[in-house]
Specification:
With about 725 residues, the chain is an alpha/beta fold. About 50% of the residues lie in helices and about 10% in strands. It has 3 domains: about 280 residues, 2-enoyl-CoA Hydratase, Chain A, domain 1; about 180 residues, NAD(P)-binding Rossmann-like Domain (Rossmann fold, 3-Layer(aba) Sandwich), CATH 3.40.50.720; about 200 residues, Orthogonal Bundle (N-(1-d-carboxylethyl)-l-norvaline Dehydrogenase, domain 2). Strands 13-12-11-14-15-16-17-18 form an 8-stranded mixed beta sheet, with helices on both faces. The chain has a 6-stranded mixed beta sheet with strand order 1-2-3-5-7-10, sandwiched between helices. A 4-stranded mixed beta sheet has the order 4-6-8-9. Helix 1 links the parallel strand 2 and strand 3. About 0% of the residues have low confidence. It binds 1,4-dihydronicotinamide adenine dinucleotide.
Length: about 725
């Protein structure tokens, strides 16, 4: 066998160790499934074998899940629901055979067991899990738009009850060993080196080779089946979650819920068939393909620093300068200190610099009180942040990032002062969110060492770092910015200089489209709901309040002053914002009034005065049309960024849109969305919008060419995996 080592010891215990060649971690492949089937039959048939231990020969862990390369290839070619269900059959049937073959199986889970890996273990009659810090078990399929198709939706509820299993299945949450034991997902924990021995011990006691659910009179734990009141409460909560996800175009939670609920009423074989049916339906959806592309192919591509210039040695930052200790500067300082970097945190006054450090203190206090850190660790992180007003303190920094006000003059002044103090080979990064990098670099005497490093708020939680190349930025500087991203555990995307780069200009179209709808007389609540139903985390009116209408206007005015002619500016939406700010004093959330009201009871609500300002149309548009507008206008901006050479790699646009600005993950990102709709159809839809709503919907030349030549943005997934 190629993927399994099968040995039998003197006690008649078979040891089946999974060991895929040429991989550091095991995954489930068709070949492995076939060999498992043969191994199960051998255990069942050989009189000398009393039972079997199923384990892995890999130091990295047990089995990580499905083979993404294989799955990606299938999804690329397209698969229908019945074929998808058939695809799940081999593993589903082998695992069923394993649990009823008459001989006991014990899983010795020596490390990470996810998805199909945990499903293998769940089919065994006994599970012992390695008790070590990095070990986790879970069924994360929901995150890929799928469900566990190897019995996970049936065995987990039967093992620990519907109530406890639903949250795990619906969120994909991973369990640490102690949690897995407490919940009853595994029977015992052991030192990693002892798991096989512990499994053998269990087998040597000649246990029964039946699963609880194959015993007479078995009932799902935690009540008298799915109708017991607390269970039905869970199901109600889960139904609400699943319905909300369905509305946001994520079909997996509802399919999981249906599989669990329907399956729980049936004996195991029927239940598994139900699971396979839903698995097939999910596999046939665009959502699974897009999520797989996002999470596995594009994200890994960005994380692997696919575009890191060759020949530049890797560098680590030991001391980072941060100019401006406001919201962003404080977040950057905290994130850097957290990964062991010393930070010089500079602001105009010592008090403001200290306030930036206080942010780290508050965040760390919370982490300690929630048990996620210890007082000692928190103190060590805090001690790395050095608040100051003295530019001379930047002398020892390998990298300095400015996060002062979004004003050219202020940025130029701090850049010049920093340059005078910095080492001759240190890199200078700007965290500007809109100003072109090439212009800002003029204040720095070594523009080759100047680069845009655009973080997102809150810095410690947002995973993206948008790196922007100015005209003179060197490849060595790019490499150092990518190395810093890796140190800070951010996923980087790299783009060429442009007003608003990729993320801010794309997100800007979302905000302006929302305000334009308001102008057209669409009801504000409908606008906000449509955006959320499209999958955006927050509606555009709430976002612009959050950012502040005043700042949004300032950015716009700066663009106009710079001579920019943004195509996608519905002038009306700017006029409306100006009226809100200048005539009505409604500047946004921080000012206590914007498109929303912010009463003392803490529950914001849409400002009723909007009805006078933008009288609603008598007949309101269909929510589907509004959803499509939000997705389309941003996707078009992504296509324009490709057309103009701002985005260099389609993976950057897709990952940047999902991780940076909340473009819905089910689409796979702005460019994947265009491919999901179909290039030609997307162009037709955009042109239809352009005719009705204005030239901001005109598709760019590169997209027209791609549609005509049927040239997708992405290479086939199987090739990329
Ligand atoms: P902020 O207003 O919270 O902080 C700016 C800080 O810079 C203040 O503490 C201020 O005292 C300090 N500062 C101003 N002039 C200074 C000087 N001459 N010397 C030293 N310190 C000085 O602003 P925020 O939101 O942190 O934004 C900072 C930068 O980050 C801006 O360029 C902004 O566009 C960008 N950005 C903002 C994001 C956001 O979500 N707020 C997201 C990404 C980028």
């Amino acid at each position: 066998m190629q993927n399994l080592n099968f040995t039998v010891d003197a006690d008649g215990i078979a040891l089946i160790a999974i060991d895929l060649p040429d991989r550091s971690m095991n995954v489930i492949t068709p070949g492995l499934t076939q060999e498992l089937a043969a191994a199960v039959e051998r255990v069942a048939a050989e009189v000398g074998i009393r039972g079997a231990v199923l384990t892995s020969a890999k130091a990295e862990g047990f089995v990580a899940g499905a083979d993404i390369g294989f799955m990606a290839g299938l999804l690329e070619d397209g698969i229908d629901a019945p074929a998808g269900a058939r695809l799940a059959e081999p593993l589903s049937l082998v695992l069923r055979r394993l649990e009823i073959c008459g001989k006991p199986f014990a899983a010795a889970i020596n490390g990470l067991a996810l998805g199909g890996g945990l499903e293998l273990a769940l089919a065994c009659h006994y599970r012992v899990l390695a008790d070590a810090p990095k070990v986790a078990v879970g069924l994360p399929e929901v995150g890929l738009g799928l469900l566990p198709g190897g019995g996970g939706t049936q065995r987990l509820p039967r093992l620990i009850g519907i109530e406890k299993s639903l949250p795990l299945l619906l969120t994909g949450q991973q369990l640490r060993p102690a949690e897995a034991l407490k919940l009853g997902v595994v029977h015992a924990l052991a030192e990693p080196a002892q798991v096989v021995q512990a499994a053998r011990q269990w087998l040597l006691a000649s246990p029964k080779a039946t699963q609880p659910w194959d015993e007479k009179g078995y009932r799902v734990p935690g009540g008298a089946g799915p109708t017991a009141s607390h269970v039905s409460r869970t199901v109600t909560a889960a139904t609400t979650l699943a319905a909300a996800q369905t509305q946001r175009n994520l079909p997996a939670p509802l399919a999981i819920l249906s599989a669990v609920y329907e399956g729980a009423q049936l004996p195991m074989d029927g239940a598994l068939a139900i699971e396979r049916k839903y698995f097939g339906q999910l596999l046939a959806s665009d959502v699974a393909r897009n999520l797989m592309r996002t999470m596995f192919i594009n994200k890994q591509r960005c994380d692997k620093l696919a575009n890191r210039p060759a020949g530049v040695p890797k560098a680590k930052v030991t001391r980072l300068g941060v100019l401006g200790a406001g919201m962003m500067g404080a977040g950057i300082a905290y994130s850097a200190a957290n990964v062991g970097i010393d930070v010089v945190l500079l602001d105009a006054t010592q008090e403001q610099a200290e306030r930036g450090k206080q942010y780290a203190q508050n965040t760390l206090d919370k982490a300690v009180s929630r048990g996620r850190s210890t007082p000692q660790k928190a103190a060590a992180v805090l001690a790395r942040i050095h608040p100051t007003t003295d530019f001379a303190a930047l002398a020892g920094c390998e990298f300095v990032i400015e996060a002062v006000f979004e004003q050219r003059g202020v940025k130029a002044e701090v850049t010049r002062k920093a340059a005078a103090a910095m080492a001759g080979d240190a890199v200078f990064g700007s965290n500007t969110s809109t100003l072109p990098i090439t212009g800002l670099a003029e204040a720095f005497e070594r523009p080759a060492d100047f680069i845009g490093v655009h973080f997102f708020s809150p810095v410690e939680r947002m995973p993206l770092l948008e790196i922007i190349l100015g005209e003179k930025t060197s490849q060595a500087t790019l490499a150092r910015a990518l190395d810093l991203a890796e140190q800070l555990r951010k996923t980087p995307i790299v783009v060429n200089d442009s007003r608003g780069f990729f993320t801010s200009r794309t997100f800007g179209t979302f905000i302006k489209e929302g305000v334009a709808m308001l102008q057209e007389g669409v009801l504000p609540a409908l606008i906000e709901n449509a955006a959320r139903q499209a999958g955006m985390p927050v509606g555009p009116l709430a976002v612009v309040d959050e950012v502040s209408l005043e700042i949004t206007l300032k950015v716009y005015d700066q663009w106009v002053a710079d001579g920019a002619q943004p195509l996608h500016e519905p002038a009306l939406s700017v006029n409306l914002m100006r009226k809100m700010v200048e005539e009505l004093g409604r500047k946004g959330k921080a000012a206590g009034a914007g498109f929303f009201e912010y009463p003392a009871d803490g529950k914001k609500r849409l400002w009723p005065g909007l009805a006078q300002l933008c009288p609603p149309q008598a007949s309101q548009p269909d929510v589907e049309e509004l959803k499509r507008r939000f997705l389309t206008i941003q996707a078009l901006e992504g296509a324009r960024c490709i057309d103009e050479g701002v985005v260099r790699d389609p993976a950057d646009a897709d990952i940047g849109s999902i991780l940076g600005i909340g473009y819905p993950a089910w689409t796979g990102g702005v460019l994947s969305y265009i491919e999901t709709v179909g290039l030609q159809r997307f162009v037709e839809q955009a042109r239809d919008f352009a005719a009705r709503l204005g030239p901001r919907y005109e598709p760019p030349a590169d997209l027209l060419r791609r549609a005509a030549e049927q040239q997708a943005y992405h290479p086939p997934m199987a090739a990329a995996a």
